[in-house]
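Attaching the record inline, Q. Sequence:
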Amino acid sequence: MLRTKLTQIIGGCLLSAAVAMPSMVQAHGYADHPVAQPFIDQLVSEGFDRQEIRDVLLKAERKDSILKAISRPAEKRLTWGEYRNIFLKQKRINQGVSFWNEHADTLARAEKEYGVPAEIIVAIIGVETRYGRNMGSYRVVDALSTLGFDYPKRGKFFQGQLKEYFYLIRDEKVEPFSLKGSYAGAMGFGQFIPSSFRNFAVDFDGDGKKDIWNNPVDAIGSVANYFKAHHWKAGAPVRSNVVMTQMAKDEWINKGLKPELTLAQWAERGIQTRRDLAGDNPATLMRLETKGEFQYWFGLHNFYVITRYNHSRLYAMAVYELSQAVAEKRNAKAG
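Structure, as predicted:
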């Protein structure tokens, strides 16, 4: 049976710490948590060593601040106007221009190879971590253990991410407690969860490592690869305006993120858009609130692709508008 050697990565310090402070480790660790037992069994069945998994989980700590944060995500408690104001400030736009200028060659190469506009890549990194300035302060193993074993609502998902994390630290030869990220275990410039790292991270500078934590070149290529894998259509629009010749029914609005009707079908309902878009474009009708007033937009295929990064129309709209603001500012300076 395949035997993975995480102990070579963890080092003897982990075991000595466990011996030196047994009560503290037991009090905070997850190795003996009842929900963790089938999780450990599953990894053992896939070739991992039981004691090596336990050694890591013994040092994983429950963080109540994580449980509090995940219960109140900004995407669910803020209006579009409030959410937009977080990400469309001039400082973040200016920082985006600087990031783009600093990595212009890499962004141009990513756009050419993956078909994803440079401004979209820049905006993703800008929204996620302010261009690498804030990648998160939680140890990833703590975040995923807390949510996997003490957040039943989404425990199965986060146990899956913790499992992916064990594969990540084995394959990339990373010390288990060295990686930090968000309260949800997202990591690096682009905030990849472990499954996204394993599926979409790339070694974009060819140095033999996929480093999204310290290497913006790999981060840029990885974000672009993520979008290509989720079927970004090069040159296609992201959103479109809405012209109503009759009032939309409430059940048509914000129904879901994935477009179910085409623009031609929306036109039959009396809801139209600009004439240069083909009627066979799939579109979802959105209503967004700003200071008690409403905006209506069509989210097109590429808008839906952005929501594959974060399943929120507010998020996708913020990414798109930041991308346009950064591009406009950069072009103005160049002119």
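The two ends are 63 Å apart (CA to CA). The beta strands are 138-139, 180-181, 239-241, 243-244, 261-262, 271-272, 282-290, 293-299.

More tomorrow.
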